[in-house]
Amino acid sequence: AQSVSQHNHHVILSEAASLELGCNYSYGGTVNLFWYVQYPGQHLQLLLKYFSGDPLVKGIKGFEAEFIKSKFSFNLRKPSVQWSDTAEYFCAVNAIQAGTALIFGKGTTLSVSS
Amino acid sequence: DTAVSQTPKYLVTQMGNDKSIKCEQNLGHDTMYWYKQDSKKFLKIMFSYNNKELIINETVPNRFSPKSPDKAHLNLHINSLELGDSAVYFCASSLLAGGSGEQFFGPGTRLTVL
Lengths: 114, 114
What we know:
The complex is a heterodimer of chains A (about 110) and B (about 110). Chain A has strands at about 5, 10-15, 20, 25, 30-40, 45-50, 55-60, 65-70, 75-80, 85-95, 105, 110-114.
């Protein structure tokens, strides 16, 4: 069965610090990978996604993620965080087969202090 | 324009009651989903429908029954509510089945069972 691990449960940063959130998945086949963000009191929004091609993908709001197939990882990065990045971040994976839903990691809470 | 909408946004009810949550998407997607987000923010798939047909039915008590009158709507009916049903329920939709495409999420319904 697929699973997704997010290593950091709660990350606390000051504004302008760099961010890296870890995400590893377990599935040997082809996958689609996603990072979603949930701002306080709001619904999930897509930050970025990887389907194929360049393993370094850029998303909204200055976020990027790198897919490293050999490490089964899809880490999220941002060079300089802002207070408005305070949110819950979810990594999600889908195996390329019919009838398989997104499997989410348990989320990482990011708190950015100004 | 709201892409995925849910009603109600908040639902407070007594144990043992029956309640429904409605979801509608105006994106023209064929596939819709229900997710449950527990108090620890963990998101888990419950059901998925593709063109009104159930394609994913995770290990969910049979007190939960999804209904899709047409491909733009996926409602969730819950019988005999229990305290453990308290959570935020998110509806989502995607163009492609099986979660292989981006999923668009609704604003969530916060269910509190007293």
